[in-house]
Amino acid sequence: MHAHRVFTQILEREQPGVSLSQEGSTLRSSTGQRYFAKIGRQDDKDRFVGEAESLKAMYAAAPGLVPRLLSCGVIDNENKERDVDVGRPYFLSEYKDIGPLSSSAAKILGKRVATELHAYKSKDGYGFHIPTFCGATRQDNGWFKTWPECFDALIGGLAEKLKEQGGYDSLCEQVAEVRERVIPALLDPLDIQPVLLHGDLWSGNTGIDRSTGEPVIFDPSSYYGHNEADLAIGRMFGGIPESFYATYNEYLPKSEPREEYGLRQDLYQLYHYLNHTVLFGGGYAGSARSKMDKLLRTVPGAEK
Q1: Same-domain status, 211 and 268
Q2: Is 188 a catalytic residue?
Q3: Residues 90, 111: one domain?
Q4: 200, 219, 230, 266: which is the annotated catalytic residue?
Q5: pTM assigned to the model
Q6: Which Pfam families does the record match to this protein (predicted)?
Q7: By residue range, what is the domain housing residue 19?
Q8: Distances in Å between the alpha carbon of 26 and those of 52, 91, 98?
Q9: Which of 52, 89, 118, 252 could disulfide-link 72, Cβ–Cβ 3.0 to 4.6 Å?
């Protein structure tokens, strides 16, 4: 099938005379190059922009670790094909033929995340300048002076969504206890700086570029926060190879107090269990409750 006019116009500026064909979300040019392209509904605009801005920041921090963004915008009268196209967002990036992440590639990924991505610091504090989306969940973001304030806002946003859905009153009461007692107890003592996070770094968002064998990560939900928050989901939902973590900590050791690292990981995993409860319900609410039971029982200073 033919490529949409908006993509043809963008790529013709770089490659005059090029012709394009499209199969699904893959564009192929007459020169043999491939691109990832998508057009969304009008209400997808914030999601597309959040992904684009995340990729731009991550590519600046670690070139080649994520697909390079080529363009993201909204279709207007100049590049529409039909009137109904106007106002719909589009996204165009380089194409990566992605295969599963091997243990050896996970070592390289651990080094690059530690020394490049998590070395890229914000001058504006914790958070991000626009909303990003963890799955389908909107993270409103904004800027915060401290990490406890930022993380509390992230957890609070999920609690509000659960209240809106209804049926989670007791779960939300427990979330309130965690926000009041656990977040200050675990996060106030940290002496850290806001670094760029992928935000949704689970195994399904990692892989290798089959053309180079190098690791690649994608589908980000970025913000600036505590580096360890990026590590938690990687041990959930399938799991990133352990070689990633071992290599990562060679270059970026656990934050002090190191003895509370495991509890901090529980807290950061809680975010994703709550988010999955928002998205899917089911047993994820039970997993979130188990995490909160443990944190409220064992975090020093958080016990009743």
Answers
A1: yes
A2: no
A3: no
A4: 200
A5: 0.96
A6: Fructosamin_kin
A7: 5-95
A8: 17, 12, 13
A9: 52
